[in-house]
Design a protein that fits this description.
Rossmann fold; four-stranded antiparallel sheet; binds adenosine-5'-triphosphate; binds magnesium ion
Length: 267
């Protein structure tokens, strides 16, 4: 039995007219404690749906999700979630944002602030405790969101394209930071992305999904030591393999362009 398990998960969405949308079908995945898995797939293939089911924001139409053997039926502090849009409270300073969960749980102020400071330090925001979210860059806001998810000491960290809105340079920096944070906390992480490179830089395993209805198409182990070198031959080989897999899932014309881009060529 895995630490985080999804078994036969299926999700259909009712639509006003016509057939219901089957977003995800037969999604089965077992993650070990401390494992980092990237969920990769084309836009609309059901990645966020899977993540939202694991988070307990959505109920599956069939199948189930277990965290340490406990069935997920609602959101809970055992699962920390980080989204693409930093969902910070704009009226709270950094440290108050980070300690929001513990405050809700009634953790005494002193303990709460100590804990908050530890995670602010961990994500590299020392000195910004009293800043407002609007005074931070996109990358810094995502650091706050990660720190906030970690202060609940969740069993599992679920991240949905958390660096998708960042420019290339910041994104790369945050990827390196996340590897460090993961090494320091050893959280079990599920990370949604549609960047092959990002998946390969971060994950122990890359799970590739088909186009809608999303099913698991392939699972790749990435046994390269971290921090990873994206120019290493093994990295490049895996990248090409995943690009070919993803290309099969795209409409013909779009597939040709995206495939060429991911190989670093102009179409
Ligand atoms: N609340 C909803 N109601 C109806 N259909 C939905 C709903 N949420 C998602 N869908 C549909 O389910 C499918 C999967 O959506 P989902 O957001 O999970 O994809 P995704 O892989 O996260 O895409 P992206 O990479 O663009 O974020 C899409 O076809 C989408 O239109
Ligand atoms: Mg999504």
């Amino acid at each position: 039995m895995g630490y985080l398990e999804a078994a036969g998960v299926r999700k259909t969405f009712e639509v006003e007219e016509g057939e219901p949308t089957v977003a995800v079908e037969e999604f089965t995945l077992s993650m070990a404690e401390g494992e980092f898995v990237a969920l990769l797939g084309p836009s609309g293939c059901g990645k966020s749906t899977v993540l939202n089911i694991m988070a307990g924001f959505l109920r599956p139409s069939a199948g189930h999700v277990l965290v340490e053997g406990q069935r997920v039926t609602a959101p809970g502090s055992d699962r920390g979630v980080v989204f693409q849009e930093h969902a910070l409270f704009p009226w709270m300073r950094v440290l108050d944002n980070v300690t929001f969960g513990p405050r809700l749980r009634g953790v005494p102020r002193r303990e709460r602030l100590e804990m908050g400071q530890r995670f602010v330090d961990l994500v590299g925001l020392t000195g910004f405790e009293r800043h407002w979210p609007r005074q931070l860059s996109g990358g810094m806001k995502q650091r706050v969101a990660i720190a906030r998810a970690l202060t609940n000491d969740p069993k599992v960290l679920l991240m949905d394209e958390p660096f998708g809105a960042l420019d290339a340079q910041n994104r790369r920096m945050m990827q390196d930071e996340l590897v460090k944070i993961w090494a320091a906390t050893k959280k079990t992480c599920l990370f949604v992305t549609h960047s092959i490179e990002e998946a390969l830089l971060l994950a122990d395993r890359v799970v590739t999904m088909t186009a809608r209805p999303g099913r698991i198409k392939a699972v790749h182990e990435v046994s390269l030591a971290r921090p990873r070198d994206d120019a290493a031959p093994a990295f490049v080989t895996l990248k090409r393999e995943l690009a070919d897999l993803l290309q099969q899932e795209l409409p013909e014309e779009a597939g040709r362009v995206a495939g060429a881009e991911s190989r670093g060529k102009r179409p």
